[in-house]
Design a protein that fits this description.
By secondary structure, this protein is α/β, with parallel strands linked by helices. 28% of the residues lie in helices and 26% in strands. The protein is globular, with a radius of gyration of 24 Å. Bound molecules: ligand LLP.
Length: 466
């Protein structure tokens, strides 16, 4: 079949529009003999019947496996470099008490960036010493709470925050471990990275200010400086940006050793995942070896010890383990004029969710893929755009993919790789209730985050009489 001229250049017509490419789908995703997709041994048709749609489905075994694999990769690379490594799961990608427990059981620490995320991690029973707190504008209350519960590390993000954390720690009679977030001037996005002397953004402090501010931190009895922190971006495929950023940090790290110990270095997260078959992320083992190897080589060249290393992946732990399940409601073949005065048809397939449960196309023009989940079909593939039900033309979940041409109202559609930054970015736009999150494992399904009801939607409206 020839490709539709409306399709983006990276999208090819699949040889089999029923296939579930392993790179994009959760590890346990399969198509049963009757064509129904199952994840974690649970058929998506059964999930839709029991919990309704839209629904977020998360493959528990896959999250646990990705967490363990990530920790093992960094631990092995660190061991080879004569040091140790800690992996923090960046909770902003998707945090619930269940997920917090899964990653903690896999040996990961958890990075939070608000009092709310902190509350979830604590409610999960994760030891506060294994938690970190980020944020470019932490409130005094957030800092106070973090110090009071005995948080492992607070990442200081501005000059003003030094005194704020020091005061809170002194008040609670604690010596608070802190890192300093540095802006390395390296900014990476997918395949590209940009390196500038100064970056125009709100996070961190410029490299040139580090020595002065670390001296200030060291001057506070109530603070223990553990090292520098840097996060260069998100959904990054290459290794170059991480290496460049690490090199820049180590130059300053080495100078800081003259004034006292610098036991750690935190290089952040940002490891990319495959949203479509066109994405080819670097394996975590290769990334770990490259980043840790760069650090080790830089340390050797400077004659300094290799620090304990820390990393903060979010998306690469949960993104690929999640799938969004929708019911198809309306289809519309739309004829579109092309520049050469011919026309092509795009099938608009509207589902029962949209930008409220997946804001990533609306926010970032993020690409996703889609598959028919309730049956397989041998029909010739057609180009589809999966739209939501919101009152906005930009309400798109999957901009372009091919589905079997007999796709029809009532079919279940599944969008893979929605485990990260979908539930966590969800809204109640147009008063659509947020979908539930269901974990599947070994043939069993359970709700880990309850979906919202109409009652929930009305519950904050003070004009509603009970
Ligand atoms: N550490 C820090 C300090 C961060 O700011 C972030 C992400 C991470 C770690 C985790 O990055 P990850 O490994 O998940 O890429 N909403 C956007 C992503 C925003 C990322 C913000 N910071 C999206 O949906 O693509």
């Amino acid at each position: 079949m020839v490709s539709n001229p409306l399709a983006p250049s990276w999208l090819t017509v699949p040889a089999d529009a029923n296939e579930l490419p392993a790179r994009v789908w959760p590890a346990t995703a399969r198509r049963d003999d009757d064509g129904v997709v199952a994840i974690g041994g649970v058929r998506l048709t059964d999930l839709a019947a029991e919990f309704g749609t839209p629904l977020y489905v998360i493959d528990e075994a896959d999250v646990r496996a990705r967490a363990s694999r990530t920790l093992a990769a960094f631990a092995a690379a660190a061991r080879a470099a004569g040091t140790t490594a800690t992996v923090y799961y960046a909770g902003k990608a998707f945090l619930s008490t269940e997920v917090a427990r899964w990653v903690a059981e896999a040996g990961l620490n958890i990075d939070t960036c608000s009092a709310g995320e902190l509350a979830v991690a604590l409610a999960a029973g994760v030891d506060a010493a294994r938690l970190g707190l980020h944020g470019n504008n932490k409130s005094l209350a957030e800092i106070d709470r973090a110090v009071a519960v005995g948080l492992g590390t607070i990442v200081i993000d501005s000059e003003q925050e030094i005194a704020r954390v020091a005061d809170a720690a002194a008040r609670h009679g604690r010596r608070q471990r802190v890192r300093l977030r540095v802006n390395s001037g390296v900014h990476a996005h997918t395949h590209e990275f940009l390196a500038t002397a100064r970056e125009d953004q709100k996070f961190g402090i410029p490299l040139g200010d580090v020595e002065r501010l670390v001296a200030e931190i060291r001057g506070h009895e109530s603070l223990e400086f553990v090292g520098l922190h840097c996060h260069i971006g998100s959904q990054i495929f290459g290794v170059g940006g991480f290496g460049e950023s690490a090199s820049r940090l180590l130059e300053v790290h080495a100078r800081l050793l003259a004034g006292g110990p610098v036991p750690e270095l935190n290089l952040g997260g940002g490891f990319g995942i495959a949203y479509t078959v066109a994405d080819d992320p670097t394996d975590i083992e290769v990334l770990a070896e490259h980043i840790v190897g760069t650090v080790a080589a830089q340390c050797a060249a400077r004659g300094i010890p290799v620090p304990h290393l820390a990393f903060e992946p979010g998306r690469s732990i949960v993104g690929g383990a999640g799938v969004s399940l929708y019911e198809l409601g309306t289809t519309k073949p739309v004829e579109v004029s092309l520049d050469d005065e011919t026309a092509a048809t795009r099938l608009y397939a509207s589902v029962d969710g949209g930008m409220s449960d997946n804001a990533r196309y609306a926010l970032y023009q993020a690409a996703y893929s889609v598959r028919l989940a309730s049956r397989a079909s041998a029909a010739e593939p057609v180009l589809v755009r999966i739209a939501g039900k919101h009152c906005e033309s930009g309400d798109i979940v999957v901009d372009a993919d091919y589905l079997p041409g007999d796709v029809a109202p009532g079919d279940l559609l599944a969008v893979p790789a929605t485990g990260a930054y979908c539930w966590s970015l969800s809204s109640r736009y147009n008063y659509l209730p947020r979908p539930a999150v269901v974990a599947v494992r070994d043939g069993a399904a359970r709700v880990i985050v309850r979906g919202e009801t109409e009652e929930d939607l009305l519950s904050h409206d003070t004009g509603v009489t009970p």
